[in-house]
Amino acid sequence: MSFLILNKTKNSYARIGQLSTKRGLINTPAFMPIGTYGPVKTLSPKDLNDIGSQIILSNTYHLYLRPGIELIKKIKGLHNFIGWKKPILTDSGGFQIFSLAKLNKITNDGVYFNSTIDGKKHFLTPQLSMKIQKILGSDIIMSFDHCPPANIETSELEKAIKRTELWTKKCYEYLSLDNGLNESGTHFFPIIQGGTNKKLREVSFNSIQKYIKNGIAIGGLAVGEDKNAMFDIISYLNTIIPYSKLRYLMGVGKPEDIIEAVSLGVDLFDCVIPTRNARNGQLFTWIGKINIINSKFKDDFKPIAEKCKCYTCITFTRSYIRHLFKINDTLGLRLATLHNVYFYMELMKEIRKRIANDTFFEWSNQIKEIISSKVV
């Protein structure tokens, strides 16, 4: 099997797993740094390797528009283009189309939209999304889905579920004809929708379950709904998603939310939070968040985090990192990002360790409150 569950806790749904891909194993629970256009902003592939990143996520929509698929096809895939040898998950582009682009028309065949770069009109179909992801050489290919915003009318949510079912079928059929599903170590993940409506979540799952091989993505959450409602849905999904399938929660990335979601059985995460917040001067530590631009750090010659072993912390002080931000030097963005992504990798390692020795339940209840606090 391509996804194996190796260990689990007694007092929660948290588990340790291992996903096999053609470019290596991914130990779960795992977090994917985001490389929208390929690179994770300010970090090199060596940086990512050194801090323990197992997999990154890249964006089908943005790569389709720039640099363009023909260029990546010439160099035989995104891995060669960006110099990254480990697995890459590519999203389908659906979320970005519905959230960023100026939509012209949504049909059962695909979506007409205008580019956010030059305004040029495009038509993205489920089949084209699969073709793009195949050219990119993705290790995990995401289904093209209709991701609705939070708190829409039930009738509109039902339409999104039906369209997602139809598009998932088209994606699966395209990959089957193109032999994409027969490549050893390449995965196709369908996406379950339904907002915070349990009945519709079950309807959505039933409509796409035939396409689930090793993993399924939980979409349509972290889009503006109440957080308690989000976790309630994740918990409910334990009653309908087979235990043996990997669960990927899309777009959730606050440390405390990751820990809570792991306790509810989630295996894979992605989010812009560690990289984006780093570029804004917010740094994560085991005792809370630090806003490094604050004046209190001007004469603070301690590392960002006392016991952190990232390059930033073993080499530089809070005072110097603050100085870099104050003079708008790009080195500050790089060092801050390096620290935050390292913290996330260490967070996932600690989660896996706690699950392995069955102390996750007690540890998670204590640490969530600490790391969600802010150090001003």
Task: Describe the model.
It is a single chain. This protein is an alpha/beta fold and 376 residues long. The protein is built from 15 helices and 19 strands. The chain has helices at 45-50, 60-65, 69-74, 78-82, 94-99, 126-136, 154-177, 198-208, 227-237, 255-263, 273-279, 311-315, 318-326, 330-356, 360-372, and strands at 3-8, 15-21, 24-28, 30-32, 34-35, 56-59, 88-91, 102-106, 111-114, 121-124, 140-142, 187-189, 191-192, 215-218, 246-249, 268-270, 282-285, 288-291, 374-375. Strands 4-16-15-14-13 form a 5-stranded parallel beta sheet. The protein has a 5-stranded parallel beta sheet with strand order 5-6-7-11-12. The chain has a 3-stranded antiparallel beta sheet with strand order 1-2-3. Helix 7 (154-177) links the parallel strand 11 (140-142) and strand 12. The radius of gyration is 21 Å and the shape is globular.
Label this structure with key terms:
single chain; 376 residues; five-stranded parallel beta sheet; 15 helices; 41% helix; globular
Strand content: 15-25%
Distance from N terminus to C terminus (CA atoms, Å) equals: 48 Å
The largest sheet has its strands arranged as 4-16-15-14-13
What value does the average pLDDT take?
95
Helix/sheet category: alpha/beta
The gyration radius over C-alpha positions equals 21 Å
Largest sheet report: 5 strands, parallel
Large-scale geometry:
globular
> In oligomeric terms, what are we looking at?
single chain
Helix content: 40-55%
What is the tally of helical segments? 15
Number of strands: 19
Q: Which stretches are low in confidence, meaning pLDDT under 50 for 5 or more residues running? A: none
